[in-house]
Amino acid sequence: MLRTKAQQMVTGVVIVALGLLSAAPQEASAATYRPQTEQELIAYVYGQLLQLQALLNAWRTGEFTDYSTVVVRGSSDYNIDVTTLTPRDVTDEDADLRGEVDLDTARSVEVWFEYGQDDDLDDRTSKRTLYDSRGDEQTFTINIDDLDADERYYFRAVAEDPDGDREYGAIKSFYTDDRGSSDDFVLELSDRTIDEGDSVKVDWEVPRDETGNQNWIGMYEPGDGDKEYILWKYIADDTDGTVEFTIYNAGEYEFRLFLDNSYDEEVTSDTLEVE
Fold this sequence. Notes:
The chain is an alpha+beta fold and 275 residues long. The chain is 16% helix and 35% strand.
């Protein structure tokens, strides 16, 4: 029954849209919206169709309820943007999740993290409101605790603009242990799958006593020796940062971190698939 209703709604909007586009008077009006031109009307109807399509998709994937609020990702009119950053102070039971949000034209946004032991991200932190009148980028940190030791956790940053439209950062992961990420080597990828010609960001961390201007990251095919790198880049003389690689050939790749121009890897990333 829900599917029938959703399909009827989509069909109804299409019929109404066609009728309006063919015979809309100059003073066309609606209860909550008054398009002044045919182009505005087209944009408005298209936006409504996207919302209805999202509603139908939500029902098909089992995410629909009678109280569902459908949000089309990447639809913020305020042009906000959110980035998931590498976590800090990871122990065997808690971690500081970090994100960065660009408010652009928004005066305020709500931010939080979704996380879990798989990429379904079933858990969510509390929300935090960030205010800014200049549209600057802001970083934010939220601690999560009661984690299981020696487990992998996935997470991503989420930002919601004043209209309720949401933007999502990339999904990252970390392992819980009792060493703390600030005292360990870390390599995290912004994506697990990309297309040929696209870029992937590699977040890295090194211990405080291992920083240097000749530390580097290489890209490899899995199983290749440390001297058989395909691409490489030096990293900053710092404890953490991000480098970006653009990859033009399909295949599977991994990234390895080295110190002082050596060929003795300290840590290897997850596998990246380029399609």
